[in-house]
Amino acid sequence: MGMDRNTIIGFILIGALLIGMFAINSKSRLKYEGEQKRIADSIEAAKPKIDPKIAHLDSLKTDSLKSTESQSSFQAEGAKAQNITIENEVMKITFSSKGAQPEEVILKNYKKYDSTNVVLQHGDFNKISYPFQDKANHTENSSDLIFTAQPVIVNADKSQTLVFTAGDSSGRQITHQYIIPANDYMINFNIIIKDANNLFSQNALNLVWQTEADQIEKDYKYEETQTHISFVKDNKFDFEYAGKGDTKTFNQPLDWIGVKQQFFIAALSAKDKMTNVTTEWKVPSDTNTYLVRSTTNARLNLQPGRDASVALQLYYGPSDYNILKKYDNKMENMVPYGSGIFAFVKYINRYFLLPVFEFLQKNVASMGMVILLLTLLIRLITSPILYKSYLSGAKMKLLKPEVDALKLKFTDPKTKQMDQQAFSMEQMKLWKSAGVSPLGGCLPALLQIPIFMSLYYFFQSNIDLRGKSFLWAKDLASYDSIYKLPFNIPFYGDHVSLFTLTAVVTSLLISIYSMNSMQDNSNPLMKYMPYIFPVLLLGVFNRLPSALTWYYTISNTITLILQIVIQKYIINHEKILAEISEKRKQPVKKSKLAERMEAMQEAQRKMQELKNKGNKK
Q1: In terms of domains, do 594 and 571 share one?
Q2: pLDDT the model gives residue 419
Q3: What is the pLDDT, as a whole number, of residue 228?
Q4: 362 pLDDT band (50/70/90 cuts)?
Q5: What are phi and psi of 376, to 5 degrees?
Q6: Range of 283's domain?
Q7: Contacts of 36 (CB under 8 A, 6+ apart)
Q8: Number of domains composing the chain
Q9: Residue-level pLDDT at 101
Q10: Reported confidence tier of residue 563, pLDDT bands at 50, 70, 90
């Protein structure tokens, strides 16, 4: 005995949903890329052509003007930039006195794909800056200013405070204060201003935050798809995919904005919110030297008066749900445990899968075995659903001879055409009298979609899997590869993932077993579709994390074993037949909805009969 038609339809819908999701995302991305290229080409064509000789003369004039400008009154004569390095338990930060800002941030507990430490901030593009007016009413930029660094202070809680100051003889002063915690990734950054009225107009500091996300994981393309521009506006979290360049202007104030890569984040937060925010992100068109460069312009309102301050925070760290949750600012939403139409599965991941996973991780050394135990638990929980699906299929198979008889009854021997409407009505009556639900096989399969999707998101987003090896897989957070192809196969890739192959093979075995024992395999679509979907998923799964394909391998194997055991040793066909016979002796209770549906079908049948008689005349 095998799965009934509705069960197969349910699993086909699951496969179609997954493939459709990838197809829609791919089409949308290609359409978006084309539109962005068209816009870029239009802008480029509209630019006036500049004579190279004139451009060269203009550059010489600019250099000449720069050389004649007086040195900033905000820094000591002959001041030179210096670097100050501070370490805590989780990161190493190098600050530059030029701009009084972080120049390099190294995470000590995480490695890149090339085994070097993860670096979240380095290079000339990364910058925190804002313009201000000096006493001669010249506009200067904080990032060009060389500050004076004070000695690092170690506080009682083992946090460290670094202070940079710059000022002039009139008493105007700008101070950058950084407080680095002892064992955390969130840095408190305070800008303290004296004589703010004369330094900034309209009681506002216009901050520019630039950050560059470099490649960290081995699969550049996959990491690119997992890179987002995230933010909280109006107390609600949202994000934009950063796969292609774009610009976004916010009408509402922002609490924070950040660039999330697959597993790491750089974010800027303002205690009193940021207003008039515009962010622009660009991606390289012909190189993978970096994933995305983001530039955010924001207005930070200052308190009225001579002295003012701005309280900011900088986060450079992992996209770890538990770490981000403790900040109580919705940053934990950057861990994509569910989004779009499947946003609801994030609650399954946060409040069920994650606690169970963490418990197993603390007590089991091998991450592969953790996934195995997690899979066994999930299959144990869902086994009643699976049992009901098979039980429904068993009942339908026992009724198959009667269903075949109904088909003959309502098939015209001359035209060989069946009165589908009349047959459907009688089939429903037959199922009803035997206590069989037509959706008994389909609904259990559909109910597994939330579990399927929650695990899909969970294994893509959980940073604890990163760098953990199992069997031949060196990193469970990335695809496993047993052979690197010398060429790229469209829709498949340039490598062979063994866990993907085992997941596909076990899916095919389930399909073969199910179809061989299916009560009705006369429909060609029903006959071949279960074989086609596993093969189609071969291309989808080949770049997914090996933790996910390892889970599917285990889950499929357990499903196949359960299917054989339940059908061969647990389901008692004679008992089911006796129950059906007993059920038929009982009066059939019809709901009002069922009565209305039957009346409607009967009326439609009679109308069709009259129409057929009219056509014969």
Answers
A1: no
A2: 77
A3: 95
A4: very high
A5: -60, -40
A6: 82-335
A7: 244, 245, 246
A8: 3
A9: 96
A10: confident
Is 123 a member of any domain?
yes
Is the Cβ–Cβ distance between 271 and 299 less than 8 Å? no
CATH code for position 135: 2.70.98.90
Q: Is residue 62 part of a domain?
A: no
The model's pTM is: 0.78
- The single-letter DSSP state of residue 411 is B
Summarize pLDDT for 500-539 with one digit per residue, the tens.
999 999 988 888 877 765 555 555 555 666 677 777 888 8
Residues 284 and 358 in one domain: no
Indicate if 415 and 480 belong to the same structural domain: no
Q: Two tokens at 183?
A: 């064992």
Q: How confident is the model at residue 16 (pLDDT cuts 50, 70, 90)?
A: low
What's the average model confidence in pLDDT over 136-159? 92
Claim to verify: residue 425 and residue 445 sit in the same structural domain? no
The secondary element (H helix, E strand) that includes residue 412 is none
Containing 141, the helix (H) or strand (E) segment is strand 139-141
Scanning the structure block, which residue is given the tokens 């999707």? 453
Name the token pair of 441: 């096989």
Answer with the residue of higher pLDDT: 405 or 316: 316
Give the residues across from 236 on adjacent strands.
233
Single-letter amino acid code for the residue at 163: V
- At 232-263, the pLDDT tens digits run 998 999 999 988 889 999 999 999 999 999 99
Residues 328 and 367 in one domain: no
Do residues 126 and 211 share a domain? yes
Higher pLDDT, 92 or 399: 92
- Specify if 41 maps to a domain: no
Shared domain check, 406 and 440: no
Band the pLDDT of 583: cuts 50, 70, 90: low
- pLDDT, residue 522, reads 55
Contact between 140 and 132 (Cβ < 8 Å): yes
Taking alpha carbons only, the member of 514, 466, 516, 474 closest to residue 497 is: 474
The pairs formed by 318-327 with CB atoms below 8 angstroms and a separation of 24 or more are 318/107, 318/110, 318/185, 318/263, 318/264, 318/265, 318/463, 319/260, 319/261, 319/262, 319/263, 319/264, 319/265, 319/461, 319/463, 320/463, 320/464, 321/350, 321/354, 323/185, 324/265, 327/186
Among candidate residues 335, 354, 375, the one where a domain is terminated: 335
Are 263 and 319 in contact, with CB atoms under 8 Å apart? yes
| 8 Å CB contact between 73 and 165 | no
Amino acid at 93: I
Tokens of 313: 């925070």
Q: How far apart are CA 50 and CA 616, in angstroms?
A: 82
Torsion region of 171: left, alpha or beta (phi above 0 gives left; psi -120 to 50 gives alpha):
left
Asked whether residue 470 is assigned to any structural domain, the reply reads yes
Q: Are residues 273 and 378 in the same domain?
A: no
Domain boundary among 335, 356, 374: 335
CA dihedral angle for residue 592, residue 594, residue 599, residue 602, rounded to 10 degrees: -170
